[in-house]
Amino acid sequence: MKRTSRITAWLLFGGALALRLGWVGYSGWSNGTQLQWPDEELHWQLASNLVQDGNLVTDDGRYAPRMPLYPLFLAWFALFGEIGILLARIGQAVIGALTTWIAYRFAAKTCDTATATVAGALLACDPFGVFFANLLLTETLFTCLAVWLTASAWKLLAQHHVIRSLAATALLGAAVIMTRPSAAAWVPVLWFVLLVFSVDRGRVFLQLLLCPVVLALALLPWGLRNQAVLGDPEWLSSNGGVTLYDAQGPQADGSSNQEFLQTLELNDNLDEVTLDRTLRDMALEQMQQDPARVASLAWVKLQRMWNPTPNVAEYRSDLAAWAGAAYTLVVVIGAVIGFVRALLARARPHQLMFWRLRPGPRTFHALVWLPIVCFTLLHCIYIGSVRYRVPLMPFCALAASTAITSYTRRTAE
């Protein structure tokens, strides 16, 4: 990386960090270490109980309600007691800023420094990234890992620093699934895309064999532990069936409301594994009985996920909501324009196909759009929420940056 580009990367990192630390500081001054969302409390319980008792378990006795990587991350801060909540938020501010730095370097290598600067600026001031840095939710960590994985996958596709890129792709693929089980719908597709786009498929196929091996090794301790305490490995947590019923049960409207856990007539003595499987079976039965309703709910969830303004009415009137809406419209519309321009652009000789050794703009957009499409489709089945598009906003910003720099070049000429 050239000296000017390196300076720009660190300036963007510093700006992103300042915004996130500023918000963490303001929120801490206003609300202290108060946790706002039930999922925050759940994650902190898992981390605190691990530190205090040596067990990754919630206060109500659930052993696998979430994947373990994020609670393990929080456990380092739980060592300091309640003040650890503030320290964790500061740590997430650093991780959010690191995402900006990774995205800048990724865009600089795949496109050019102008595009990278625009992408870095968009990520640095991402209002969703700033806001979620203060919440003990998986979004900040998962977003960083997902962008890093995509950057490493591109390097592997281009055969840059093959051993290091392969190791990073394998480890990060395991890490994103260990953070959020929904990533299991994206990571194998990413492996397939790398194979299809590669110029030497035989070599890349042999390289990619490492990825499922690393994933299996990463999941093995988790599965063995769950087998010991629950009697079942529960590879992707014991929350999948609950979430599917939340999204597809008779009461489903596209949003998340798990009051059915108190009102549904189920045996109170069901353990978390049996409850999860029972609700999954009930949800699948409901889907089979009324496929038209599944399609109707999918449309509602798609709108909820990509709604520029918050879905909750009381949150739509403040300045932050309007800033988030404006940002969403800019990056989403820009991302679509960037994709269309790349698709219609005349390719250079070494970029005639997606799968050339030196990937061009089409390959860049393919890798960037892949998580956007995968997670959007997934949440058309599961819950649709603005929250679930938060990790996708950096990918939209990367795609949008190609459209913005193309426009500025054209007007400059």
What's the SSE pattern? Answer: HHHHHHHHHHHHHHHHHH
User: Strand pairing plus helix content: what structural class?
Assistant: mainly alpha
Number of DSSP helical runs: 18
Binned, the helix content reads over 70%
Task: State the total count of DSSP E strands.
Answer: 0
Main sheet properties: none
CA radius of gyration is 22 Å
Instruction: Give the terminus-to-terminus CA distance.
Output: 27 Å
Oligomer: single chain
Overall pLDDT score: 90
Strand content: under 5%
Uncertain segments of ≥5 residues (pLDDT<50)?
A: 349-358, 407-413
Shape: globular
Description of the molecule:
- The protein is an all-alpha fold.
- Helices cover 70% and strands 0% of the residues.
- The chain contains 18 helices and no strands.
- The chain has helices at 3-31, 38-53, 69-78, 83-110, 113-124, 127-132, 139-157, 162-179, 187-197, 201-208, 210-230, 240-248, 260-263, 272-289, 291-305, 319-344, 361-381, 393-412.
- It starts with a helix and ends with a helix.
Key structural traits:
18 helices, mainly alpha, disordered C terminus, 413 residues, globular, single chain, 70% helix
What is the structure about, briefly put?
70% of the residues lie in helices and 0% in strands.
Write the layout of secondary structure elements.
Layout: H1 3-31, H2 38-53, H3 69-78, H4 83-110, H5 113-124, H6 127-132, H7 139-157, H8 162-179, H9 187-197, H10 201-208, H11 210-230, H12 240-248, H13 260-263, H14 272-289, H15 291-305, H16 319-344, H17 361-381, H18 393-412
Helix pairs in contact: 1-4, 1-5, 2-3, 3-4, 4-5, 4-7, 5-18, 7-8, 7-9, 8-11, 9-10, 12-14, 15-17, 16-18, 17-18
